[in-house]
Amino acid sequence: MASSGETALILRVELPPALEESRRLALLEDDSGLPAHVTLIYPFADAEALVEPLRRKIETVLTGSPPLRLTLTGPARWPTVLYAAVEPTPSVLALQAKLSSAFPEYPLYGGMFAFEPHVTIATGPLSADERASLSAMASLPVEVSVGFVDLIEKTNGSWTTRWRFPLTPAVRVLVCGERLRGDDAAALIAVDMLPADARTLAEILEVGQLEIESVMDVPEGFSLIVVDAAVGVGPGDVVTMPLAEVAQPGAVGPWSTHAMPPDQVIALGGALRGSLPAGMFVGIGVAEFGLGEGLSPAVQSGLPAFVDALASAIRDLASPVP
To answer: Angle 166-227-305 (CA atoms, 0-180°, nearest 5)?
Structure first.
């Protein structure tokens, strides 16, 4: 990244303070203002090409790309680069592939190198600055959350952010139940227990009772998960079923504990929406619905498996295997 007017698409990451200080000290002068980042496309469009139609195209390409929760590890080194590796790589690879497919006229690094997610800490031969960076990398591994793709531009020798594109979840989770009706609270409690990475990937809505409007309102391009306590299943048993199967006429399955059977709600909501979202029903068999807090022993015992099933459904729908 040398000449004025250059641009790049990046994921900006936040490093531990000591490592960030070492990274800045080790930067070359012509990289002034360059944040810690994962490069997605460089070089990108000339600065003169940064017009509204291009901004809208990038925005469209990134629609449905969820926020990322990454782990930086290291130290790692290529012959002239000290860097932090980025894990897990599949989510970043998928995002970079989506952008590369949309903008084949801008091959990463001019087509000279394959994409390997990383955060550059220092470049060049081992120096006093790099030795300080190696020491500071003792703060790794560290988890970072990334909620934006930035388009950065080099102007007058310094890098600045020109455009910022939010990464938004493309999985909606409708959580049914009431917290003060015994086992009916199981879905709500399971959502409270979700790992942070799964929560980041989904838009979670507590709806109490599943309604036709809730299915109709799922945005185009979103997947849907309905999570609820269920009858017709052994107490504490966990069941998952594709929504398309739940919506089949006469389907036999683990029905929700709430008023209108989910096959009717999902089928009608999908019909009125125009199409049924891809997605899953995730439920747990229940035993008690008396007023008051607290789950029955069987449901309490099955709760970890329920949480795992829900988290897996979110991850699978957020990052489908091609």
So the answer is: 100
- Distance of CA 217 to CAs 174, 209, 222, Å? 11, 15, 10
State how far the alpha carbon of 114 is from the alpha carbons of 40, 42, 93, 177, in Å: 11, 12, 11, 48
Domain spans of the chain, in order of start: 7-166, 171-318
- The DSSP string of 62-75 is HTTPPPEEEEEEEE
**Burial status of residue 29 (CB atoms within 10 A of its CB: 0-12, 13-18, 19 or more):** exposed
Is domain 171-318 given the CATH code 3.60.21.10 in the classification? no
- How far from the centroid of its chain's Cα atoms is residue 4's Cα? 33
pTM attached to this predicted model: 0.66
Q: What is the pLDDT of residues 108-163, one digit of tens each?
A: 999 999 999 999 998 877 666 566 777 888 899 999 989 899 999 998 888 999 99
Q: Is the dihedral of CA 179, 182, 187, 191 positive or negative?
A: positive
For domain 7-166, say whether CATH 3.90.1140.10 is its number: yes
Cis peptide leading into 262, omega within 30 of 0? no
